[in-house]
Amino acid sequence: DADVTQTPRNRITKTGKRIMLECSQTKGHDRMYWYRQDPGLGLRLIYYSFDVKDINKGEISDGYSVSRQAQAKFSLSLESAIPNQTALYFCATSEGAGGPYEQYFGPGTRLTVT
Amino acid sequence: DQQVKQNSPSLSVQEGRISILNCDYTNSMFDYFLWYKKYPAEGPTFLISISSIKDKNEDGRFTVFLNKSAKHLSLHIVPSQPGDSAVYFCAASFLHGSGNTGKLIFGQGTTLQVKP
């Protein structure tokens, strides 16, 4: 079984709808991250959480919110989806303070906002 | 402001030859660098890393070189194989300092094609 899972894998939604992307991990890592990938822009950090009570904005958090329900679960919400949020979204995990800091990624969610 | 840059969107090499992927960074405080490989429909997977106290790290066919004075790192794949065809991302991070340790800043990615 995959260590980092994301649901759904694909989603098409309409402008203005609320949508939640979910991430679960079995690696026992404290830290979790949400990224989006756009062509030519690489991976950009949306939000990250160093533990259940510590949630921080990344470089492109506008229009997104997150919830860390447990050590193993980190959800990303789009409160009112817009077309330029069409992208590939990845969840990742890593060890806590002291590292190592390699991040382990889920398979991604392809989101299309029409 | 792009702190980590991969200026070559794509690279094509022949099987058996060397592939060299390049990455430049602007923040001299970065002290840990990583390379990730990504296949279509999969998440990125960790490939190799290097800390700023070293200038070379080798793992099998993969070697990462770091030139701190030039703020440049490169990934060498020797020999290249068709299965290496993927998108490669470099990333930079901080091992020390408050708040930012462990956060990765990614480059735009380079698509490598290895032809049989």
Written account of the structure:
- The complex is a heterodimer of chains A (114) and B (116).
- Chain A is mostly beta strands and 114 residues long.
- Chain A has no helices and 11 strands.
- Chain A has strands at residues 4-7, 10-13, 19-25, 31-38, 42-51, 54-57, 64-70, 73-78, 87-94, 104-105, 109-113.
- In chain A, strands 2, 4, 5, 6, 9, 10 and 11 form a 7-stranded mixed β-sheet that branches. Chain A has a 4-stranded antiparallel β-sheet with strand order 1-3-8-7, with no helix packed on it.
- In chain A, strand 5 and strand 6 (54-57) form a beta hairpin.
- The mean pLDDT of chain A is 93.
- With 116 residues, chain B is mostly beta strands.
- In chain B, the strands form 2 sheets. In chain B, strands 2, 4, 5, 9, 10 and 11 form a 6-stranded mixed β-sheet that branches. A 5-stranded antiparallel β-sheet of chain B has the order 1-3-8-7-6, with no helix packed on it.
- In chain B, a hairpin with a 4-residue loop joins strand 7 and strand 8 (72-77).
- The radius of gyration of chain B is 14 Å and the shape is globular.
- The termini of chain B are far apart.
- The interface between A and B is medium-sized, with 25 and 25 residues.
